[in-house]
Amino acid sequence: MHGNDYPIGTPGTPWGDAERAAWRQQQSVKRSYRDDVITRLDGLNDAFECVQYGSLPYDTEYPLFALKSRQWDHQRPTALITGGVHGYETSGVHGALQFAEQGAGAYLDKLNLVVCPCVSPWGYETINRWNPEAVDPNRSFLNDSPAPESAALMAFVGQLPGALLVHIDLHETTDTDNSEFRPALAARDGVTHDEWDIPDGFYLVADSHKSELAFQQHIIRAVAKVTQIAPADGQGRLIGEPILDNGIIEYAAKPLGLCMGLSDAPFVTTTEVYPDSPNASPQNCNDAQQAAVQSALDYALGVRS
């Protein structure tokens, strides 16, 4: 499906307020941010301080929460883990929570940890890539951001004491990227987007301005023990991009407004899990996200020591 096939808008014409409103009216709540995310934060009080860093200005109130190391040490480096920037990418949210619950304890005496498990709760509840204004938060980490989700996270991270050593942003690539989200994007912008092959497996997106290939390779090796790494397509690419190495591509993070570009951390990456694979399960996807986070932290700490 291309933008011309999408049921909202006029082919070749970008959406205006009426089309965005029509799109928004089609969305509905399908799961609970409060039940799935907020209730799990209470169980982490011993290790983390739960900080509300914002609230979204939508019809339903969506408070935004971060978990922050309770025993903060200014002599330690800081690591940021973000999930749910695209709310529909489920293992990004639950992988971040699983790391906080099961894996973080091994790092609390080495790093200051900040975990933002669900950056886009409206997107999580409605299973959407965009926010209610049809804006993609993961293209909005920019000055004067058009997405309140992105602006709130940027402001919060900007006031953290010290500099970040590492930032891991947890994402998924799903079959609905081709069936819904790319056609919607084409219609919204009044253009045509070709479909791409959805990679069958895990891959990483590095920041082309600081690829740190050895860092990315370290994560791929760790995740390969948990789930399959996405092979290249027939053109030797992943989602249309040239491959740097097995399961690794790169984007220019800051110019594109990607979440992984919100700081000057030297070690950054975006994970991409494929939940629609016949070889995957929700638990396997969460495990892959946790393995990616822990291997990223291990590498960054090893380089720093």
UniProtKB/TrEMBL annotation:
Locate the coiled-coil region(s) and give their ranges.
Answer: none
Ranges for domain Peptidase M14 come to 29-305
- Report the superkingdom from the record: Bacteria
Family matches, as Pfam families:
Peptidase_M14
Q: Which family does it belong to?
A: Belongs to the peptidase M14 family.
Q: Which protein, by its recorded name, is this?
A: M14 family metallocarboxypeptidase
Q: What is the lineage of its organism?
A: Bacteria, Pseudomonadati, Pseudomonadota, Gammaproteobacteria, Alteromonadales
